Amino acid sequence: QQPGNLVHSVWNAKVLTDLVKHPSMKSVAKFQSGAFEAWMPKLHAAYSTLKQKLFDWCPALQSLFPGVFCAATFNIGPRTVCHTHVDHLNLWNGACAITAFGNYNYQRGGHIVLHGNAKLIIEFPPARSVIIPSATIPHSNTDVAPHEARMSMTQYTAGGLFRFVAYGFRNKESCQMEDPRLLEELARTVKARVAEGVSMFSSLAEL
Q: Are 140 and 133 in contact (CB under 8 A)?
């Protein structure tokens, strides 16, 4: 019905609390957000604005880390493998930041694979980060050897949060009942908003 803090089991909550408080995780999260700003400054600004609006609307919301992302996932392995997928619940033109951890031969395994038109297989060493448009490019990562370890941390922001703000801090059903003209306006301007979303990606010349 509305944004809220994610709820976990007692055991998972304890592990996650320890993780997000750890200085190394805070450093990684800060680096991910900073890299996002460096390579996608316009999209980063949109994420920053959204997060500020949400926290102004509901001060009870908790931020896991400093930076612009609203959520994080920890894949703690010991041999994390993500099969081919798109993060369809993320913002359609949005990005997620992924950092790999562990001890593995990055030339033989642990690669990040970008499928579809991208057709890229990229070495992904431990302690490195990538930022990808995860809702539009199918992606996966290759396995590592049985005696090796690979883990990862990912930060992202759900597309539903952007829609919630666009609907006037309510879900679509409430917007339909309370302000149907707003929904009509959003439907009428969809092509212009798609073009605006595409324009948020930065070219090398702009950077």
A: no
**Mind listing the pLDDT tens digit for each residue in 10-23?**
999 999 999 999 99
| pLDDT for res 77 | 84
Burial-class residue 12 by CB neighbours within 10 Å (0-12, 13-18, 19+).
exposed
Whole-prediction pTM: 0.92
Fold observed for domain 10-163: Jelly Rolls (2.60.120)
Which tokens belong to 154?
């990912």
Helices marked H in the chain: 10-21, 23-39, 41-57, 159-166, 172-178, 180-188, 190-199
The predicted structure's pLDDT at residue 67: 92
Tens of pLDDT, residue by residue over 32-86, are 999 999 999 999 999 999 999 999 999 999 988 989 999 999 998 899 999 999 9
Assigned token pair, 12: 């998972």
- The residues spanned by each domain of the chain are 10-163
Give the chain's end-to-end CA distance (angstroms, integer). 39
The answer to whether residues 29 and 65 touch, using CB atoms and an 8 Å cutoff, is: yes
- Nearest to residue 100, comparing CAs of 65, 128, 133? 128
Strand partners, 141: 112
Please state at what angle helix 41-57 crosses helix 159-166, rounded to 10 degrees: 60
